[in-house]
Amino acid sequence: MNDFEKQVHQYQDRIYGFACYFLKDQTVAQDITQDVFIKFWEHYDDIDRDRALGWLLKVTRNACIDQIRKRKTRRKSVTVDSENLNRAESQGPSPLAETQASDFDEHLNAALDNIDEPYRSVVVLREVQDLKYKEIAEALDMPLNTVKVYIHRGRKKLRNQLAEVLDHEAA
Amino acid sequence: MKPLDASFRDEWMDARVEAYVDGDLSGEDRETFEEILEEEAHWQTQVQQAQRIQEGLRSLPQPSTPPEVTQSILDRTSRSHQPLPWWKDTLQQVIHTWRALVAARRRPAVDYAVGLAFIAVAVVFVVWPLTEPDAPRTQSSSQLQIPVTAPYSQTDVDRARTKAEWTLDYVSRISDAPTETTTARPDPTDPVPDVIPNDSSTTVRFPPAP
Known about the structure:
The complex is a heterodimer. Chain A is mainly alpha-helical. Chain A has helices at residues 3-23, 26-42, 52-78, 82-89, 95-98, 103-114, 119-128, 133-140, 144-161, 163-170. Chain A contains ten helices and no strands. The longest helix of chain A has 27 residues, at 52-78. In chain A, 35% of the residues are buried. Chain B has three domains: 6-58, no CATH class; 83-131; 146-210, no CATH class. Helices cover 63% and strands 0% of the residues of chain B. Chain B contains ten helices and no strands. Chain B starts with 5 loop residues before the first helix and ends in a 30-residue tail after the last helix. At the A-B interface, helix 1, helix 2, helix 5, helix 6 and helix 7 of A face helix 2, helix 4, helix 5 and helix 6 of B.
């Protein structure tokens, strides 16, 4: 196994997982994962190995944002019901739906979808994918302290959204 | 810093719940936060909810890349199947080393080390050969031990070497115009001295000029 292949195996789940959480679309996440690693291969000689994960996440996030923009443009031009469009785009079941998630997990996923960028990215990268602050800072081009602040704010947004669910759960 | 009025206190507490859960509050803020936390059940609930959300996020499933996606990536990148030729591999390693050095130069200690290395290289390859161009050559030639094989003896080899040195010295002297006036010029018609050096201190003496 050569160096490039090792890095593919090392980082592919993080890239694919991040794209899945970002897009909620397994098929598109697979395409993006492939495209990101092809770009990684094309720029392989220019990328510092220690910062490879940051580079990969940055490219993945940009690709996901592009994808969401395209979706919005398509929605506007075709004027299709957004729920139907989501179903049409997603050929397979969501990776999150594949597992038998609890009610709270479903609410949590829904709340995660509702919080805006970059809070969603930092929360997913830190809390779901367990990345280090430094890696997130590199991926999102942010100072380390800003990353911490955004993580706290992102989770506060989730707490506000899930207050009712959590109160109900506690009762 | 202790919040004063109730509305400001709520805002202050609400902004710090997640930082408190993560243990990121500074000493004074943490003390104030815990003081209010003990008094008010509402904030105790908020802290519990923040902890529950964090646990929930950390237990969310991590999607695994389907094997066909991995295979597709590796198929599309020839690098995984075709090993690089040795020269390209070496070139890439040199480039990577150079980039690593450039990246490391952000640290002053590395900067100094690189500077010293450049100076050392300059001294070895530039300054030193220019200062004493002949000395090392003379020394090395006198220390030269040519393996002797039949039909030549060591004496024959030494004699030949002496003649060669004499000739070279003569040629260099006649081509060196400024030194011509200060040094005795050997007559080309004079016989080559038949001196056999036994060690490195032996020197060749030219016959006096006519």
